[in-house]
Amino acid sequence: MKFGGSSVADAAAMLKVFEIVNKFADNELVVVLSACKGMTDKLIACANYASNNNFSESIHLAESIEIHHFNILNEVINNDKLKKNALDDVKFLTDELKTFLEGVSLLQELTPKSLDQILSFGERLSTLVFSHICKFLRLNCKWMFAPDFIKTDSNFNSAKYNISNTKNAANDKLIPVLQQEKLIITQGFIGSDDDSIVTTLGRGGSDLSAAIIGAAINADEIWIWTDVSGVLSADPRKLKNTKTIRKMTFNEVRELAFFGAKVLHPDTIKPAMEDKIPVRVLNTFEPDNKGTLILENIIKNDAELHSVISMNSCVFLSINKPAEADFSSFANNTFNILELNNFKILYTLITESNIRCVLKPENQSLDILFATEFNNYNIKWNECAVLCLSGIGIDQYKLKSQKIITKLQNGSDYYQLIAGFSDNAIVMICKTEDEMKVLEQIHELILNSIEG
Ligand code: ADP
Ligand code: ASP
Ligand code: MG
């Protein structure tokens, strides 16, 4: 079971988590926690202040992190001796955090490696506090340090997990303890490289930790507890009348997460998918809601539309290939340049004379591409929004979606509907200003499909 940042945000939320864990505690259970909501952002800010000559602000923020965890313990634990032990443990960790911040401040240098050390304190603190709460409420559990068994490469800030090393480490260190103790509390988001240096898996990476651990211990199921009742028919921050999707496939979730559905980290599903472990997405604040069950296959006679995700501020790039250039080296070169400059490619279409792709810039401006060979190419680009509609047997819906797009087209030359490359997804590209209009109409189609 993995609980996200809002599920462990404060004392009231942690008590909800406790009730859920307690209810299932007669199973062998690994509980993976994120940092309390907002703590990872605060830790990033701490690290930046420390490396930018503002040590006092950095320490001030670190103290607010300390106080947050003290407050949870003070609210929940009313046994003086247990409370003192718990507060001392938190203090020990936050002192260590301050030492790292001091190091960064003295050197005036923040490397990806030191940032990962600093970020790890969010999850170390939340799991420490939660395991003290379990002890106080008389639920036996064992706190374990996830970097001891989640093994990654050394790509700090977004390390790639190594499943075979993780399975070996879990066999040695995690499984024997799980069999003996039955309930393990551990951190999401963090792992360690071959030199045992702490790494992080990228923002939102606790979902992935749960899936990696699930695969490493060959779990019966992986349950992701969050603040909404499963995977919804659309992002609830964008549309109001969303519905929970009861069952969906791994492939659909991969597509939705790739196009930015925050409910699951884009890589989460991969370790579960490899080992065919069912994943449930559940609501910590409505634990009786069945949420979403994600499986390899769903047997249905009819097609079903499930969910739509939209992403704005994307760029639709069209690059003309010089006639004399070789087709595959031109394509390779183009993608290398995009990758080297950290542009996420959402979609591509290549012909002999042209490459089209949709990019999602993070913070980089397109200008950096013109410091490369791109400067010699004939390039056009437009801002756009991208939508991805997921479902099963989705081919049947191409015509309906095409009609919507055609209606919206209004003579514009860069609306596109890309269907047929996957039975689980249709991708649509539209003008940024039409995003909500397309989203609402596609969502109507989904609601009709669910109800019909
Ligand atoms: P956690 O802290 O539990 O990891 P996140 O904030 O990372 O939670 O992800 C859950 C959030 O994802 C929801 O609160 C919701 O706003 C957002 N979200 C975006 N798209 C969807 C979707 N299709 N279904 C459910 N939630 C979604
Ligand atoms: N705490 C990390 C983050 O905020 C990981 C996670 O919550 O999944 O990105
Ligand atoms: Mg998340």
Number of separate helices:
12
What is the CATH fold-level name of the largest domain? Carbamate kinase
User: What is the strand arrangement across the widest sheet?
Assistant: 3-4-2-1-7-9-10-8
Number of strands: 16
Query: N- to C-terminal separation?
Result: 33 Å
Please give the share of residues in helix.
40-55%
CATH architecture of the largest domain: 3-Layer(aba) Sandwich
Low-confidence residue ranges: none
Q: Structural class given helices, strands, pairing? A: alpha/beta
Ions, cofactors, ligands: which are bound? adenosine-5'-diphosphate, aspartic acid, magnesium ion
Rg on CA atoms, Å: 24 Å
- What's the CATH first level of the largest domain? Alpha Beta
Spatial shape: globular
CATH superfamily of the largest domain: Acetylglutamate kinase-like
Structural domain count: 2
Helix-strand topology string: EHEHHHHEHEEEHEEHHEEEHEEEHEEH
* Residues in β-strands, percent: 15-25%
Mean pLDDT: 92
